[in-house]
Amino acid sequence: MIQQPFALWLSPLVTRLLARVLVALILSSQFLAAEAPQEKIPVAAAVMSWTTSKGETYDGSYTGLDESNNVILHLNDDTTSRVPYADLTPESKAQVKTCNTSGLISVLILGDSMSLEGFGKRLDQKMRDDPHIGAVHTYMACGTHPLSWLKCKPYSTIKTFCGYWSIESVAGSSKPREVNEAANYGSKRVGRFVPKLETLLETLKPDVLIMQSGNNFFSFFNDHKTIKEDYHTKQVKCYVSPFMTYLATKPTSLKRLYWVTPPQNGKVTDEIQTFVYDQLQANTRSLATLIDSRTVTHYPYKKMGSDKEHFEGREAYDWADSIYGLVTKDLYQKPMASIQKLTDQAIALGGWVPVAAPEAPAAALKVKVKLLSKTPVPTPDKFAPYREYLVGYLYEVTEVIEGKYEKDKLLVMHPAYIGLVKQPIEKLKVGNTYTLHVHELDKSSLWDAIRRDDASDSFDLAPCMLAEDEIRHPDASTNRTALKPSTVQQALP
Fold first, then answer.
1. At CA 137, angle to CA 352 and CA 289, rounded to 5?
2. Which of these, 151, 332, 413, 424, is most buried using a 10 Å CB contact count?
3. H or E stretch covering 348
4. What is the pLDDT of residues 457-492, one digit of tens each?
């Protein structure tokens, strides 16, 4: 017998074993494939073209953002590239946000005339260019204060006549929708309704509200230098507290509130500026994050209005850039999903109660008075961009005909301009006697937040308003013309 090599004798056995193993592996893989769910390729993994402002093009899929806001791309050649988000074209930036919709933050910005000088547009751009922020809606209305944005009376249908600008995100478009009436800043005769916060919160559902407001509180200080502690504390509280109470007690989508306080100015003293900031802080409590604009602005400004308050140009942009940096530095400390709703934060703080019913108008007085002194009427350039202005006239009270009044002097704020039309109050003569119907000027009056001046040094007197002048405000609910003369003017010779 011829002996076969061992390897040849073993080979048929090995072949059969290997065949069985192979069959088992095939069956096993088919079973696992049948059991395992089919993985869906996310939108972010889709291959796209990415272009920079320098004309560079990358073909690949988006995989995320790093801490330096570089877009991480997995390229078609199986390499990874990091492209600065800031270098991308608007279209490619929009692609980043399309791939990252679940983590984007929605922002609402409200501002007064200080925003119309360039600050608001710049802040909107900075927010809109941020890769972590999705929708941005910005509304700027001249002459507004916190209550102007609410539906409460008498501001439910208030209009702005001295400038308006809105910039709104449009779904599916990288270009926002703008209504820019700032070109007619201070000269518009046709007013535009101020958007209402209640409606904006319900329809836009923002995560963050940035509130630029407070400059118009300086109009409460008649001589721009004297603080009446009790009176002015009450004045600021009347405008801030109801606004904050609404946000604290009305369930909305809001999670963060940033309040941008007034920048440095030369209109009022440093003491008044500090007082207003302190009152804002006291009335917003820790529910709002206050940003003190005085720390990032420097008066006097190169491009400044004659009111020593409004400014534009590079310094307005620098202010916006600083505010953007401070807001986002705080905003990105925690994931938005981990932050409580604003109303839940208010519950934890305690002390917030639902908004009370509107205050009744102040009690009216009928008095016989003698005019003692008049505040000079300025030219419109001194209070631009506003269209209305009040000046103080000091009277001696000779008889109280109706109502109750204990002081011997009366300070009345007369409209010197309505719609930039000068009013004939100079016909009121010092030494003459008049019978006036007046009431205290408070937040129930649309005139309360109008810019004013008083040179009478009547620090202990609360300013009053002629009752018949109420209907002459441009936003008065009646449709009577703003130029209709008051009763006292009709009685003049």
1. 35
2. 413
3. helix 342-349
4. 887 888 999 999 988 998 886 433 333 444 454 444
